Amino acid sequence: MIGRPFTARACANIALVKYWGKRDGVRNLPAAGSLSLTLDALTTVTTVRFDPALAADAMTLDGAAASAKVLARTTTWLDRVRELAGVTTRAAIDSVNHFPTASGLASSASGFAALALAATRAAGLDLDGAALSRLARLGSGSAARSIYGGLVRMHAGARVDGDDAIATPIAAAPAFVADLRMIIAEVGGGAPKTHGSRDAMDHCAATSPLYAAWVACLDGDLRAAEAAIAAGDLEALGAVTEGSALAMHAAAIASRPTVLYWQPATLAALAAVRELRGRGVGAWATMDAGPHVKVLTRAGDGAAVAAAMAAVPGVTAVTTATAGPGVEPA
Amino acid sequence: MIGRPFTARACANIALVKYWGKRDGVRNLPAAGSLSLTLDALTTVTTVRFDPALAADAMTLDGAAASAKVLARTTTWLDRVRELAGVTTRAAIDSVNHFPTASGLASSASGFAALALAATRAAGLDLDGAALSRLARLGSGSAARSIYGGLVRMHAGARVDGDDAIATPIAAAPAFVADLRMIIAEVGGGAPKTHGSRDAMDHCAATSPLYAAWVACLDGDLRAAEAAIAAGDLEALGAVTEGSALAMHAAAIASRPTVLYWQPATLAALAAVRELRGRGVGAWATMDAGPHVKVLTRAGDGAAVAAAMAAVPGVTAVTTATAGPGVEPA
Predict the structure, then answer these.
(1) Residue among B58, B79, B54 nearest B70 (CA)
(2) DSSP state, B311?
(3) Which of A87-96, A252-261, B128-137, B185-194 bottoms out in mean pLDDT, i.e. has the lowest?
(4) Nearest C-alpha of chain A: how many angstroms from B217?
């Protein structure tokens, strides 16, 4: 029933096979599929209440009024929910990120996943996972994956309208998923991002001579990752994970002018991961549109990997995450 | 006349449009063309004397006996000179690198260019530039370019035997070439290279999903660089220079496992170059198969660029180079 507030919690996720590039910017459709691990350590809790007394949507983020830009993006997105629910009522949204630090780790995935459940329920809708994933994708491509817990596959989809560009959960052995750890090494300074990921994707697609080859390599990487998961082979999954991240950054680095997210400590952290592997520790790096390094490993090596990352000069915080659940009422 | 020693001097060169990848490893034929600037600051002086009393080739490098590996590579290369001269006499080779530091800046280009002139003259041959370039290429792909001074174009060639894979000098306005400066910022530690460039090229060609796209982008970059030189447009030449270097490193970074030559200070130096450009200083970075950063600039900005590079933490030496001559008797 409209008018009643609804609160939802969603976790962030980190792509093991990366998402970088769109086939349709308006519908926010990815150029290729991706594959991710939903993480328990990084969550967003969002409450939505539709209120006939409101003349416009209102939003707080971590207790403060959201910027005009964030509010405008959210209103555009909410219009789709209103359309589905057949209402025009404005909403009050309160969103809080429970992230270990204020590092600028991306919260758009957990944010739009939590919003998708909270807003649709508050609008009186009861959508299935596919419909929630589709809605979340309209807000942020990676949010489509945070609808589900554990290992998740995002599909590029083939339809022009993009209705098949949704995520689905991957059937993996529970023990395999439970044994996964993601060690998040934040590279500090907190210098603002030089490139927002949306603009950077578009710039890379338009100018990088390596972009088309990057998109073309994703199908093989997805198949290799899914085969590794089916076989419970962390070594193989780790190799694809690190290879996909480096190929994505390589495509970005070759943009003209360059899109180079790495800081000196990023390279030092990557070297530390290679050194761990040299010592027989199963550890594989991945990086997103920022300087931080995330390391995929198994539970038994988690403490050693976290200690090695904490010892890297320039690493300002280390968080150990396990597989987290999909979006749920809170 | 055979038996008389001959001494030649050659300069190193730095590619503005990069060479990275072979179409034939045996004949050492490049997968694509490249374009370079020969540099006065880094030279090799080599003396060759064919001596019937020698049972095997003998070689010193910087006054010390060359390693068995270097000697074997040189003997294989000298066999081609002996074939051309119709002799079987063994040679004594003394080669000295006049490089500003012992940093591991590549000396194979100046080394094989000096050797090409010294060995052929000592063997009684008098070859033209094309033949010298072809011979030098058999020793080191980049050595083919050091036969000539200033701006030089390496041609991939189309022949199976590779006889057309040679360098030619680029006709450029003398004032434009004289105004060029290359600021060489060495990134220290002096850690040994993780990947020799030959092995790394082969590994990249075999495993990087971005390698084919890298090779495919070279024709456009070569055309753009040649047009910039013809127009005397340093801004345009600089943009291609930095773009080509980053695309080459991107292709290498995407190798599986990665070929990552950068150290933390490499990134800091790249950031300093971007900052210089942000302040209106014409400065563009290039990097080869190692952690050093070389900055293309004009004479009037050379001191400012050199000072900025010297201020980067982790940069251990800075050298300013101008355009140098082709190989010549010394």
Answers:
(1) B58
(2) T
(3) B185-194
(4) 6
Q: Domains in chain B, please, with CATH?
A: 6-173 (3.30.230.10), 174-321 (3.30.70.890)
Euclidean distance between CA atoms B31 and B35, whole angstroms: 13
Nearest to A254 among B216, B246, B262 (CB): B246
Specify whether the CB–CB gap between B5 and B12 falls below 8 A: no
ipTM of the complex: 0.93
Q: Which of B207, B221, B258 to mutate to test the interface with A (most CBs of A within 10 A)?
A: B258
Pairing type for strands B293-298 and B283-286 reads antiparallel
Q: Which helix (H) or strand (E) holds B135?
A: helix B129-139
Nearest CA in chain A to B252: A250
Evaluate whether A37 touches A178 at the Cβ level (below 8 Å).
Answer: no
User: Cβ distance B248 to B20 under 8 Å?
Assistant: yes
Share of chain A above pLDDT 70, in %: 96
Q: Tell me, what's the pLDDT at B189?
A: 63
The counts of H helices and E strands in chain B are: 9, 14
Reading the block at residue B191, the tokens are 């850690």
List strand residue ranges (DSSP E) for A51-104, in order. 58-61, 64-65, 91-98
Residue pair A190/A164 in contact (Cβ under 8 Å)? The answer is no
CB contact at 8 A, B29 and B162: yes
List the single best residue of A17, A210, A249 to mutate versus B (max B Cβ within 10 A): A210
- Hey, are the CB atoms on A267 and B262 less than 8 Å from each other? yes
Q: Which residue of B has its CA nearest to A314?
A: B264
How many angstroms separate the CA of residue B320 from the nearest CA in chain A? Answer: 25
Interface of A with B (CB under 8 A): 209-210, 212-214, 216-217, 220, 239, 242-243, 246-247, 249-251, 253-254, 256-258, 260, 262-268, 270, 314
Task: Give Rg (Cα) of chain B.
Answer: 19
Binary contact (B267, A268; C-beta < 8 A): no
Taking contacts as CB-CB distances below 8 angstroms, the residues of chain A near B247 are 209-210, 254
User: DSSP 3-state assignment of B210?
Assistant: coil
Residue to substitute from B267, B273, B315, interface A, most A β-carbons within 10 A: B267
Mean of the pLDDT values across residues B16-27? 93
Report the alpha-carbon distance of residue A27 to residue A273 in Å, rounded: 37
Nearest CA in chain A to B259: A246
Tell me the whole-structure pTM to 2 decimals. 0.94
Separation CA A217–CA A204 (nearest Å): 16
* Exposed/middle/buried for residue B136 (C-beta within 10 Å: 0-12, 13-18, 19+): buried
Integer angstrom CA distances of residue B84 from B2, B28, B78, B123, B144? 13, 18, 10, 9, 18
Strand extents, DSSP E, chain A: 6-17, 22-24, 29-30, 34-50, 58-61, 64-65, 91-98, 151-154, 167-169, 180-187, 283-286, 293-298, 315-321, 328-329
Instruction: Please compute the mean of the pLDDT values over residues B14-19 and round it to a whole number.
Output: 97
